[in-house]
C-alpha cells in the first residue's frame, strides 16, 4: 500500500518515513502544500498523513481541494493544533482521523492500519479468503496453518489484491502503488509477481483472475 506523507519538519518527517516504510508501506514524502497537491493529482495513494502548518499552502486547503475533486482517499491529520475547534475544522474539511503531535510512532502505525481497514471495509487485522489468511500487522500470508514464503514485493501485490478482493484492480494501479516516485516498476514486473503469486497460492482456494484490458481480480475459487 502506498502512503503520501506531507510534513515540513525534517526530523519528524524522517522518523515517520522510516517507521512507515519499516511497517511495509511504500511512502512518498512531500514537504509543502503545493508539492502535496501535485502528488495527489498525479499519483494514486491508499492514505495520506497530512501536517496542517505547511509552507506555500496550508494542509487544510490541500485537504479541502482533495475532497472538492471527489477523492475519497483516507486522510489522517498530524498536528500540534489541539483545540476542539481545530479538530472539528479538520474533520469537517474531510479528514478521517486526527493525531496530535507529539505522538508515538506505534500509535501512528496502528491508526494508519485502522484507517486502511475502514477504507477497505475490513473489520479484522487478518484477512481470510478460502484457506488463505493474511495478517496485515505481521505481514504474513498463510494457507491453512502453513506460512507462505513470499518476497516483499509479492506481499505488497497480494495485500493490494486482497484489500480489493472481488473487485478488478488495474495493472497500472498496482504498478503505481509498488514504488515511490523516484523508482519505477513496469507493468511487466506486475505480471511476473502475479504469476509467482498464482503458483504459491495453488491449493489455497484463492485465485487471481486476469481480465483482459482491465486488470486482475482476486477471489475465492468456485
Ligand atoms: Ca508543519
Task: Set out the fold topology.
Blueprint (H helix, E strand, L loop, with lengths): L1 E5 L3 H13 L3 E5 L2 H10 L4 E5 L7 H10 L6 E5 L4 H9 L4 E4 L4 H15 L6 E4 L2 E4 L4 E4 L2 E2 L4 H12 L4 E2 L1 H8 L8 H14 L5 E6 L3 E6 L2
Parallel strand pairs: 1-2, 1-3, 3-4, 4-5
Antiparallel strand pairs: 6-7, 7-8, 8-9, 10-12, 11-12
Helix pairs in contact: 2-3, 6-8, 7-8
Explain what the structure shows.
The protein has 8 helices and 12 strands. With 222 residues, it is an alpha/beta fold. It has 2 domains: 118 residues, Rossmann fold (3-Layer(aba) Sandwich); 95 residues, Winged helix-like DNA-binding domain superfamily/Winged helix DNA-binding domain (Arc Repressor Mutant, subunit A, Orthogonal Bundle), CATH 1.10.10.10. The longest helix is centred in the middle third of the chain and has 15 residues. The two termini are 28 Å apart. The relative contact order is 0.12. Calcium ion binds next to loops.
For the termini, the CA-CA separation is 28 Å
Relative helix content: 40-55%
> CATH fold name of the largest domain, please?
Rossmann fold
Shape from CA axes? globular
Number of strands: 12
Quick gist of this model?
The chain is built from 8 helices and 12 strands.
Core attributes:
23% strand, Arc Repressor Mutant, subunit A, Rossmann fold, alpha/beta, 12 strands, five-stranded parallel sheet, single chain, 222 residues, 8 helices, globular, 41% helix, four-stranded antiparallel sheet, binds calcium ion
